[in-house]
Amino acid sequence: MVSISTFHCVFLMFLLACIFEVGYGKLVFNVMEDGAIADGSTDNSMVFENVFNKACQSKGRKLVLIPRGIYMLRPIVLKGPCKGPVEFQIIGTLKAFTDEASTINVNHWITFQYIDQLILRGGGKLDGQGPSAWNDNTCSKDPNCKALPISLRFDFVTNSRITHLTSINSKNAHVYIFACKDVKFDHIHLIAPKDSPNTDGIHIGSPSNIQILDLTIATGDDCVSMSPGSKNINIKNVKCGPGHGISVGSLGGGPNEEDVSGLMVTNCTFKDTDNGLRVKTWARSYASNVFNLTFEDIIMGNVNNPIIIDQQYCPSQNCEKGDSQVQIRNVKYRNIRGTSSSKIAVDFECSKGKPCDKIELNNINLTYHGAEGAVASSCSNAKGIANGQQQPDSCI
To answer: Where in the cell is it found (predicted)?
Structure first.
């Protein structure tokens, strides 16, 4: 027989769980109550926008709740400013449409704009249905290619947190962060096949004070990529692979680009990636600066280019040749270990006109077991120091 005190304890635990689920002290906006239909075929775009707008313009703390089920969505923009913090809790699955109007020449699927104190969480899933669009990606051959939608975009979002979500099969990049400040991304899974085109995990442009923590990223492009203006980016405990690694750049592609500075990458693992830690600039570039980058406590597993600076970056045959005008300096590589799938495990191809300066190699232990011979490094126009173990032998 269950005692009254035991019954009370069980009831209290249930009540607390319910409060946590919907958000104690918050005004709850459930999309189902405004007409959303989670049947995997009905278009819920207008319902989601309307519910978000009502929550955004309500005072106090608000929670937009997406319960279990499959919700079809066309491209939507959820735009502030809002009257106070907003939590967007995705428990169900959001699924993108695959028609041409929702895909071709569209730069986003779900966008959050001009919001302060956003929380996006819930353990749910975003399915971009990328296989329907990947054949339309012609950007490797055509510089005037049409855009495909980024699954989750944040523009001018501040003081926010995005956590406990999964994004699969994005048509383009999974996440794009533009001009955001003081935003934390943690416990997120970003998944697409290794041969899927341009499915970057997280692409960053002109942000500051961004934290990327405890992520699993397996894609067909960069796990994390940083474009001009990226400042004070902290990447920690990220598992990357397959994919193209963590990249700074491409830089120098346009005039008056903002500098990149203050990147910290620590305790990350790369497995079966094309690159590990990469900085890349266009060969004939405009002037800018990259400085104060630190890569520390990194494990490489069968990585083709574990450590690489490429200032002759040219993904096609149509690039202009010449010296890069991007100055790279104060870059630290510390405690990098593991295996390379190519003979050249450390490759610094820097600009003749603006050599890389103050490069630090400290305790590098990278091995190669292929048919090309002993593991090696290659340096061109790179200045710096090497301390501690150096395998391969340092060339700076």
So the answer is: Secreted, Cell wall
